[in-house]
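Sample intake — Exoribonuclease II
Collected from: Opuntia streptacantha
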Amino acid sequence: ARPTTAAPPHRNHRNAAIAAARRPKPKIRSKQISNLLGLTSTGEFVEDKVEKQGLRGGLLLEFKKDSERVLLAVTQRPDGKKNWMVADQNGVTSSIKPQQITYIVPGIEKFDHSQIAQFAQKAQDHLDPTLLELAWAELLENNKSATVEEFAEMLYGTSDPLESYCAHLLLSKDEVYFSVLETKGYCSVYSPRPTEQVEELLRRKLAKEAAEKELRDFVQLLTSAKAMPLDAKPSKSSWLTEERIQHRIEALVAYAIDACSSDSQKRVAGTILVAMGMQKTASSALNLLIDIGYFPVHVNLDLLKLNIRTDHPEEVVSAAEELLSASRDIDEANRKDLTHLKVYAIDVDEADELDDALSAMRLQDGRIKVWIHVADPTCLIQPGSILDREARSRGTSVFLPTATYPMFPEKLAMEAMSLKQGKICNAVTVSVVLHSDGSIAEYSVDNTFIKPTYMLTYESASELLYLNLKEEAELRILSEAASLRLRWRRQQGAVDTTTLETRIKVPNPDDPEPQINVYVENQADPAMRLVSEMMILCGEVIAAFGVCNNILLPYRGQPQSNIDVSAFAHLPEGPVRSSAIVKVMRAAEFDFRTPIRHGVLGIPGYVQFTSPIRRYMDLLAHYQVKAHIRGDTPPFSAGQMEGIASIVNMKHRVARKLFSTSLRYWVLEYLRRQPKGRKFRALILRYIKDRIAALLLTEGSYWVPR
């Protein structure tokens, strides 16, 4: 189904209507025109044309009931000094103020209020708006003005009560031909507008009528779409094919997320909601967009409110395509061939961008050597290029239960940057030899070729570790190295903050009842510990490499070595204790010249380096390190990196907030679907205030984040 609207009135029709003000007008009948002789010239004093009319019982008058309603009524009796009690056409008696009166019908005494409806209907039957144009032409030609009663004489040949009221109705509703020259009491004198002004007002009137027709057509589209079954509703893209429809839909979207860019856009949305019989609220706009099928039932409004871009601009995609078709590795001549190593890439099962992989071996002296291989996007992307600027503006890939929005165009990230099983891949490899206590004995940082052997999920890697297979001795060595590192870091004052993390995947979020897959990520899991320790080790080595070679880098620290872990000993070890410790931790800090001790990790310096496809700060570190390896001057100064970091870190905070709110939504949606009355076993992580607490639901191993 595709929404469409009728075409606006043809331009020829509009021109013809405007030209009506210019062409010769038919003359009013001689009986009527004779009354012109007594009319006042527009420049003359008009005091003698209006008479002050006093109020008394039995008069028929018109008054403003409220801002939108005008009623006929009969005066009954005074109500105080100035107000009058009246009986209106609906049979309601009320008190009105003199300023509410808009017209007193002349020539009527002791009118029966039961006859008001009949009188009003007769007046409607007598109305002929085309008479105004004729009267305007005659008065303009003779440079005359007229009262309502004189208009009645001109238009109907009599100023009897009914005809006078008809003339009043025509004039009061007229927005084109006449203006009020003077008003005294309840009587007004009307003057014809100049031709140029009438032409302009006609243009505006026609434009207004066209807009009103467009609105009616649009409301009909909305009403029709609401009535359709879900599988027959118009697609989202079909609402955006015509500009007249698109701008109204965009106004409703902006209204739904409280992000109207102008008062005009706000008025457009409000007018649509009123026309649909709905309240002018953000929730009404949201419900309407869901009802017509433009939004899915489970639309992520935060994605819109936070202005997260879900796709890349055409010029960025084109640049990525061009890079793919003519890609060349600027570091090819200086790469070490490590394709002989067994390489393990371990990540969550839904990972699309594989940034890192691991290798290990035991040296003849018994020490362990590990290799942390990191994807090398900077062999393709140059600082300041269109792809670099796009990645910087995003700051990070955004991971949600429903979708992933990558920092780089998906095809580029998947095909040219990510590590692939069985394929020769470009990498930056950090190799480390460990002392027996887990400290660093020696290291190197090199451009390399690798050939990933396994792509493992955390679950499958943990299973291989449990099986302890001889042919996977390298994986066991990696696990041993991770244990050495963890023990060494704890001796240096590291704080253990491992916990359980809820993970949700919703493969079909646009369905009214989508599938919700809930699982837990246990950070104490052997495979997760292994990967985490190797990533921390890589960050420590890059920081040491930067210090040794005077490289300006985004050194990340957390000066919390004074945290007294024993103060939390009364809490159960695990999620409860970790949650309490995290609450007192200070935020991480950056220095772009020298390392800061990372007290929580228990290491002297740290640089995030292992996710250059997903995080721009990692990519920034790659630019600096890779330039040094080539023998070039690093492209960014400390001041430039600090400016970049302030923007990128803000993007990270937005992405984390979006992830947290989205995760919470889907956990609660999952719980909502559970049978009514079902009881859950839960662990209280901490009290927040009063009777509100953060809970870890132990049945099913998931928790509801705040």
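Post-analysis note: The first helix runs from residue 11 to 19.
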